[in-house]
Amino acid sequence: MSRLGGAVENGLHDGLSDMCLLEPLEEDAFIDNLQRRFQGDQIYTYIGSVVISVNPYQSLPLYTHEVIFQYRSRNIYELPPHIYAITDDAYRSMRDRNLDQCVIISGESGAGKTEASKVIMQFVAAVSGKGANIDRVKEQLLQSNPVLEGLYIHGVIKNKNFNDFLFTAFGNAKTTRNDNSSRFGKYMDIEFDYKGDPVGGVITNYLLEKSRVIWQSKGERNFHIFYQLLSGADTSFLKSLKLLRNPESYAFLRHGGCSHIESVDDKHNFTVIKNAMKVIGFKENELSLVFQLVACVLKLGNIHFQHISNFDGTDGCKLINEEEVDEVCDLLGCVSSDLIDALRHRSVRTNTETVQMDLSATEATYARDALCKAIYSRLFSWLVARINDSIRVKSRGKRKSMGVLDIYGFEIFDTNSFEQFIINFCNEKLQQLFIELTLREEQEEYIAEGVQWINVDYFNNAVICDLIEKNNQGILAMLDEECLRPGDTTDQTFLQKLNSLCCTHQHFESRGCRKTQSDRTLPLDAFRLIHYAGAVTYKVTGFLDKNNDLLFRDLSYAMFSCSHPLLQLIFPEGNPQRSSLKRPATAGSQFKVSVNDLMRNLKTKCPNYIRCIKPNDYKRPGLFVKEIVLHQVRYLGLMENVRVRRAGYAFRQIYEQFLYRYKMLCSDTWPLWHGTAKEGVARLFAKLGVHDQDCAFGVTKIFIRNPRTLFCMEDMRKLKMEDLATLLQKIWRGWHHRQIFLRMRQSQIHIASVWRKYRARKEFLRIRHAAIVLCTYTRGWKARRLLKRLRFERQCVWAVGVIRKYFFGWQVRKEYRCKFRATAGPRIVNFLHNALRHRYLMRLREHLPSLSPTDDTWPTPPIIFHSLSEQLREIHHKWRCEKFRNACDQATRNRMREKVTASDLFFDRKINYPRSVSHPFIGDYVNLRQNSKWKKTACDTNDQHLVFADIVMKINRRNGKMVPQLLVLSTNALLVLDQRTLVIKYRIPTSEVESLSLSPFWDKLVIFHLKKNGGDVLTKKGDFLLSSDHVIEIVAKTVLLVQNATSRRPPVYIGTQ
Ligand SMILES: Nc1ncnc2c1ncn2[C@@H]1O[C@H](COP(=O)(O)OP(=O)(O)O)[C@@H](O)[C@H]1O
Ligand SMILES: [Mg+2]
User: Fold this and answer.
1) Would you say residue 1051 has pLDDT above 70?
2) Which of 11, 110, 200, 637 is catalytic?
3) Coiled-coil ranges per the record (predicted)?
4) Which of 4, 467, 870, 962 would you label with 993, given CA atoms 20 to 30 Å apart?
5) Which ligand is nearest to the CA of 55?
6) Is 932 a catalytic residue?
7) Within this chain, do residues 937 and 1045 fall inside the same structural domain, yes or no?
C-alpha cells in the first residue's frame, strides 16, 4: 500500500457516511464523526446497512417528494445515508425477491423513533402503487398512527405529502423528554400483494405505561386524549359525558401541573383524531362508547374514600362523593350500589365459600386506581384490536410483509423500576437478535462468497438475556415465583431471593452480593444489572405489585355486569360463567411471551435497523452534547454494532461495481477492461500494491479488511478524477472548438455562395435593363419613322380628296351653269324662311297660354325666332288684358283702378300694403248710403256720390287724443261727421287736398296736407291726422278723387320724417 499513501483525512472532512470505515475505531472518533455530520445537517450515518439517526429538532429539507424520488430504486451507497435508502432497499428486496422485511427502530424517548417510523411509511406510501383501494388502505394505515401515536409537534414531515401525522392519541403523552412520547411499544406489520401494493396490516402493542393514568411526574401530562376530549368536545357532548371543561377539575390530570402544552392545539387535535377514527372505520356509536370510558376514568379518579372503623375493629371505608359514582354508573349502565360495594369490599373465595372483607381507605384507593388503569389499558388494547379489524387484509392470496418496530429504547433513569427493567429486557433481546442476525448474515455471506471466516471479538449479550428470562432461574421467573408463593412476600423477599441465586452472575450486582457488598452507590433496596449498554440500578419497590397487576375480582364482576357494551368485551374474566380461580398471568411473564413472539416473528424476516440518537436534552436544534450522545452510543451498543459489522472485513462490494468505481486507477483497466470483473480487480490491486492479507476475493464480491485501503483508493480516485476531468475538459474543448470552426467554415462557404449569387444576379439585371432600354429606343425610332410615313400618306390622301372635290365642283358647275337662273338662290332661301315661320306660328297657335293675365307661361321658340317670340308674347299679353278689362263693368273697373292706384302708391313702400291686396275695397263700411239722414245731408251738400264711409280715429294735433268720427269721401269732398248725429264737423272739397303723408311702417296713420290759401275754416286749421284700418283704401281713393277733381295727382309722401 506504500504507493497509495496520501491524505487519508481528506475523506473525513465532511464526516464519514459509514462508521465501518472509521479508523481508528474508537468512541471519540465515532462521536466526532457524528458531530461533524450533525453540524453539516447530515443527520443520518450508516453502520453497514444500519442507519444512525440523530434527532435534528428542526425541520430539514430531507423529506420532500423530490428526495423520495431521488432515493427510489437506487443502490443504498449511491446517495448520502437516509432512512429512505434502507427503506427502498428493504421494499425492493421484499417486492422483487419475496424476502419479508422488518425495520427495528430503537433509541431513547425523544430520539425520533416515531418520526422515523412515519418517514418509512411515507416512503412506502409514495413509492407503492396507486388506486382507490390501495389509497384507502394507505390512508387507514397512516391514520392508525394519529389514533395510537400522537401529535406531531415540530412539523418536520408536516406539509410533505404525508397524510398529516399531527394529532392526538391514546398512547402518547408529554414527558419531560418528549412532548409526544409514545408510552407503549408498537410493532406494525404492513402487508403487500405480489405487486408490492399495500393491502392491509396488523398492529401489535406492547406494555402501555398505564401507571401514567393515575400519576404523572412534575412537568408531564397524562395521555393526550384526556386533554383533547376536555378542550375539543362540544358542550353538549361534554354534558352527556358529565364532564367539566377544566382539566384541573380532575385529580388524574393535576399531578404534572401542566395541563397545557404551548405547541399543541388539543382542541383542533380532538377533531382530527375523531376524523382519523372515522377514516379507519369507527362508527359514531363506537366513538361515544370509547369516550364514555375515557370520561369514566377521569371521574373515578375524583372518588375519595374516608377511613371508618368497623364493629369488629377491622378497618373499613366509606365514599365521600357518592354523586360522582352515580354519574359514572349512569355512563357505564350499572347500579351504583354494586360499584360502590365492589370498590369498598373484596371477596375472598375458597373452594367452599366466599367471604367478603372490607377494604381500608388506602386499599380502596388502590383498588380504584387499579380499576382505572385496567379500564384505560384494556380500552387501548381494544382500540388496537379494532384498528386491526379495519386494516386486516381482507383478500386471500400470498402476501409479503414489512414490519416496523417502534419500541422504547434503553432507559436509564435516576430511579429505575419494574417498567425500566421490562423495557431494558426487551432491548437486550433486540440486541441479541441484532447480533444473531448480523453475525449470521455475515457468516452466510462469507460462506456464500467462499471467504474464510475469522472469529472476532465482540460482546455477546446472550448471558444477560438468560439472566433475565431463563426458565426457573431467570429474574422474571423468580419474580413470578415470589408473586405466586403463598405466605408473606414483599419486594424485599424478592431481592433476597435474587441475591441468593444470581450473586455469582457477572452481570448481576447488589448489596447482598459479596463482590459489591461495600458499594455505596448501590442502595440496599436495589439490584444492578450490567446490561450490554451499561449498568442499570433497579429499585425493587413495587416490583411484586406491578408484576401481579391485580384487579380485584369484585371489580371485574362489576364491570362485566355493566350494560356498557365495551366493558363486557374488555373485562371477559368478570363473566360469572367463565370465571375461574386461576390467577391471570403476571405482567412479566405476559411480556416475556409477547417479546419472544416478537423475536420469533422478527427472525423470520430480514432485519433493518434504525438507531435513533438524541443530541441534547433540551429539544434544541443544532446543539450536540457529546456526553449525552456518548451515553446513547454506548447503551445502543453502536460500537458493538460496528465491531460486529467489521468482524472480518470492513468493506465489501460486488466486483463489477467496485471495478467500475476504481478502474481509472490502473492503466490496464482504464478505460475498458476486457476480462472478467474479478480479474480486473485483481489486476488493479496488483498494480496498487494491495497485499493479499488486506483483502479477500469472494465469488461475486471483493472484501477489504481495512478501511484505510479504501480511503487511499478514494483519495487516488479523487486525484485521478481531477486528471480525468481535465482530460475530459481538454477533449471537450477541442471538440467544442472544432465544432465552432466547422460551423464557421460552413458559414463562410454559405456566405460566399450567397454573395456570388447576389453579384451575378445584380449583373444580369443590369444587362437585362440595358437590353430593354436599347429595344425600347429602337422600337420607338421605328415607330416614329412609321408614323411619319403614315401621316404623309394620310396628307396625300386628304390632298387628293380636296383636289378631287374641287375638280368635281368645277366640273359640275361648268356643266350646270347654263341650267340655273341667277335669282334662284335668294328665292329658295326666302321660301325656306317662310315655311319655317309658318310652321312656328302654327305651332304657337296650338300652344298659346291661357287668357288669365296672371299666367306666366309661354312656349319656348326656336333660336331664330327669339325676338319675334318676345314681341308676340307682349302683344298677346296686352291683348288678353284688354279682353279682361272689357269683360268687367264700370264699378269693377273703378275698383280695379283704385287697386292699381294703391299698388302704384304703396308697392314696396309700406309694410302693411301686401295685407291689403286681398281685401276688396268695399267703400261704405257703415252702410251710409241707406241712411235717410245722410241722404238728406248729402242732398244739401251735393255729396250724393259716396266713395268711402267708415269710423276712423281722428287724432287731435294738440294733445294727441284720439276721437272716433265718421269719415266720408264723396266725389266732391272729404267729410268728417259726428258718428251718431251725422252732423258734419268738417267738409273739405277734394281740390283742397294738397298732398298726403304716411310712414313706411305697420301704423295706420295718414296725414292730409291741405292747401294753405283756402278760405275754409277747416283749412285754416292746417293738416289733419287720422288713423284707420283702411288707410290704404282711403289714400288710394283720395288720390283718385283729387286727380279727378284737379286733373293732377296729389303727391303721397311715404317716409320716416
Ligand atoms: N427527523 C426529524 N426531523 C426533525 N425533528 C424530528 C425528527 N425526528 C424527531 N424529531 C423531533 O423530535 C420529537 C420527538 O420525536 P419522536 O419520534 O416522538 O421521539 P420518540 O418516538 O423516539 O420518543 C418530535 O416531536 C420532533 O419534534
Ligand atoms: Mg415515540
Assistant:
1) yes
2) 110
3) none
4) 962
5) 1
6) no
7) yes
Nine-digit cell at 444? Answer: 452466510
pLDDT at 831 over 70: yes
* Containing structural domain, residue 868: 842-887
723 and 759 fall within a common domain:
yes
Is residue 166 one of the residues assigned to a domain?
A: no
221 lies in a domain?
no
pLDDT at 2 over 60: no
CA–CA separation, 453 and 444 (whole Å)? 10
Average pLDDT, the chain: 87
Ligand 1 midpoint to CA 228 (Å)? 21
User: Do 569 and 518 share a structural domain?
Assistant: no
Q: State the distance from the centre of ligand 1 to the C-alpha of 81, rounded, in angstroms.
A: 18
Task: Write the CATH number for 331.
Answer: 1.20.120.720
Whether residue 131 lies in the annotated active site = no
Kindly state whether residues 861 and 933 are assigned to the same domain: no
Exposure string over 605-616, b if 16+ CB within 10 A, otherwise e: bbbbbbbbbbbb
Catalytic residue from among 45, 55, 106, 109: 109
Cell of 985: 264737423
Ligand 1, residue 181: give the atom nearest the CA: 23
Tell me the per-residue pLDDT of 600-635, one tens digit each, with 9 for 90 and over: 999 899 889 999 999 998 889 999 999 999 988 887
For the Cβ of 110 lying below 6 angstroms from any atom of ligand 1, the answer is: yes
Measured from the Cβ of residue 682, the count of other Cβ atoms closer than 10 Å reads: 17
For residue 319, tell me if it sits in a domain.
yes
Q: Cell numbers for 338, please give them.
A: 354494586
* Residue labelled with grid coordinates 461533524: 36
Q: Which atom of ligand 1 is nearest to the CA of 57?
A: 5
Claim to verify: residue 540 and residue 557 sit in the same structural domain: no
Question: pLDDT for 123-164, tens place per residue?
Answer: 998 888 887 778 888 887 777 776 666 433 333 333 332 223
Residue with cell 378542550: 231
Instruction: Count Cβ atoms below 10 Å from residue 795 Cβ, excluding itself.
Output: 10
pLDDT at position 475, please?
Answer: 94
User: Rounded to whole angstroms, how far apart are CA atoms 90 and 124?
Assistant: 10
pLDDT for position 454: 66
pTM (predicted TM-score)? 0.64
CA 607 to centroid of ligand 1, rounded, Å: 22
If you measure from the C-alpha of residue 155 to the centroid of ligand 2, how many angstroms do you get, rounded to a whole number?
A: 15
| Residue 75: active-site member | no
- Residue with the bigger pLDDT between 573 and 51: it is 51
852 in the same domain as 764: no
Which amino acid does the sequence have at 354? T
Residues 931 and 882 in one domain: no
Q: Select which of 409, 474, 574, 923 is catalytic.
A: 409
Active site residue 181: yes
- Tell me the per-residue pLDDT of 205-255, one tens digit each, with 9 for 90 and over: 888 888 899 999 888 999 999 999 999 999 999 999 999 999 999 999 999
Q: Which of 53, 87, 114, 336 is catalytic?
A: 114
Residue 180 beta carbon below 6 angstroms from any ligand 1 atom: yes
Rounded CA separation 1008/997 (Å): 7
Query: Residue 796 — very low, low, confident or very high, per pLDDT cuts 50/70/90?
Result: very high
Decide whether any atom of ligand 1 lies within 6 Å of the 182 Cβ: yes
Q: Which of 702, 733, 768 is the last residue of a domain?
A: 768
Residue 11, pLDDT > 50, answer no
Residue 990 in contact with residue 1045, Cβ under 8 Å? Answer: yes
- Specify binding-site residues for ATP: 107-114
* Contact indicator for 707, 697 with CB cutoff of 8 Å: no
**Cα(951)–Cα(126) distance, integer angstroms:** 126
Find the helix packing angle between 626-635 and 638-645, rounded to 10°: 60
- Domains: count for the chain: 5
Q: Are residues 568 and 703 in the same domain?
A: no
CATH number at residue 1011: 2.30.29.30
Q: Which long-range contacts (CB under 8 A, 24 or more apart) does 615-618 make?
A: 615/38, 615/54, 615/55, 615/56, 615/57, 616/57, 617/177
Q: Has residue 395 been placed in a domain?
A: no
Among the candidates 751, 768, 785, a domain finishes at 768
110 is a catalytic site residue: yes
